[in-house]
Amino acid sequence: MPKSLAEWLQHLETLHPVGIDLGLERVSRVAERMGLFKRPIANRVVIVAGTNGKGSTVAMVDAVARAHGWHVGTYSSPHLLRYNERVRINGQEADDACLVEGFERVEQARLEAPEISLTYFEAGTLCALWCLAQAELDLAVLEVGLGGRLDAVNIINADVAVVTTIAQDHASFLGTDIAQIGLEKAGIFRPLRPAVLGSESLPGSVADAAIALAAPVYRLGLAFNHSAEENSHLPWCWSGLTATGETLSLDALPDPGLPVDNAATALQALALTGLTLTLKATQNALASVNLPGRMQWIGQWCLDVGHNPHAATYVARHLPVPPDTGRQWAVIGMLNDKDVDGVIAALAPRITDWVCVTLDGERGHTANELAERIKAHGGCVRLCADSPEAGVDAMAEMLTDKDRILVTGSFFTVAALLARSLPQASRS
Asked: Per the UniProt record, which EC number(s) apply here (predicted)?
């Protein structure tokens, strides 16, 4: 049996013939063998699904709950630099020892007769649930990996279920019909338990799925709302409801640096868990929340993992205009199962100079392929490089201190550059 976390992660790659195999039967059987269904993994569980905005919603639910004194654990994916990022307990990454013990428990259960095959994600989810269950938490916040109905996270019953946004992504698994995608995401809803809808433009299938389960529906723009305006960093107000129908309101909330729709959704979800939201604790949490790789600024560089048109549109709207004579660069690397043309079209009005980079692996687009697509949209491609690191090195001498650089298109692109220092131009 593997000893170190690195050995376990390598072992997980060998457990199943395909990387993604949606369905709950295998993972549920192993979870039962592990005893994960004997008692709740936490006093309360919030599960978050959606195409975009899951990570920021999880981060804000976590931050606000901890600011109120709750013990909170989270599970999210994928990670950027360290696998440990996926499991956090009271704001701290799970240590190697906890994860190794979790994987040992998963493996022991998996190998009981008859042996059960698990994907990398399924084994990782079971390990995370075991780690969270040991921590005696007030709240566990779980992020769905892909879809909802058949995602491994959905073996757990949510006390409050959240759907953030619905857009096209993972078309080979979820299809391209928005209503059907909405139904898949809504698969995390449970009878009579609150369903929080975090966008005013969700397809009707999401609310219909909740209503069919007699799940109370809390929709942005109806049950809860906020006063923030697009691209405004001014204080904003939130209003929402408790599970008993009492009205709540919080004023003078700070810009969290993340989508305010998701902040409002996080507050509504927490109100439904029974947490009594106080103004000071909420302000402190939103002012300090941090989520790497989401509109993350490092000097003149902005790093965002957006990889579909919906996310790219948000990035384009929120990119500040560079100083006079400055250029807006984009370093882009993408996987070939994404809507590349849709992402380029969303970003193109804001980008003056493109740097295309190759991502390794059979799913990675080459830089030259991306360049051809960008040129077809009328974009100016300044460089092509064999990797994100090589692209940054090649463009470093071309930058001025008035330039701004967006790094985007994939978790892989952002992770590669977060792992190294980024050059800051010194010449004007």
From this structure: 6.3.2.12, 6.3.2.17
Structure tokens at 284: 């402190």
C-alpha separations of 280 from 16, 60, 177, 395 in Å: 48, 15, 43, 45
CATH of domain 5-288: 3.40.1190.10
End-to-end distance of the chain based on CA atoms, in angstroms? 57
Q: Produce one character per residue of 302-340: b if its CB has 16 or more CB atoms within 10 Å, e if not.
A: bbbbbbbbbbbbbbbeebeebeeebbbbbbbbbbeebbb
Residues facing 49 on adjacent strands? 163
In angstroms, the Cα distances linking 335 to 82, 158, 284 are 21, 32, 37
List every span in the chain annotated with CATH 3.90.190.20: 296-418
**Helices and strands, number each (H, E), in the chain:** 15, 17
CATH of domain 296-418: 3.90.190.20
Q: How far apart are CA 83 and CA 160, in angstroms?
A: 26
State the pLDDT at residue 231: 72
Query: Distance between CA atoms of 312 and 310, rounded to whole angstroms?
Result: 6
- Secondary structure class of 356 (helix, strand, coil): strand
Of the ranges 68-77, 91-100, 359-368, which one carries the lowest mean pLDDT score? 359-368
Of 345, 261, 352, 351, which Cα lies nearest the Cα of 309? 345
Q: Which pLDDT score is estimated for 362?
A: 79
In this predicted model, what pLDDT tens digit does every residue of 414-427 receive, in sequence order? 999 999 999 988 66
263, burial (CB in 10 Å: exposed 0-12, middle 13-18, buried 19+): buried
DSSP 8-state code for residue 213:
T
Which residue has 């006390």 as its token pair? 159
Residues 6+ apart with CB under 8 A from 292: 80, 303, 418
pLDDT tens-digit readout, 106-162: 999 999 999 999 999 999 999 999 999 999 999 999 999 988 999 999 999 999 999
Cβ-proximal residues to 269 (8 Å cutoff; 6+ apart), any chain: 46, 48, 57, 61, 160, 162, 194, 196
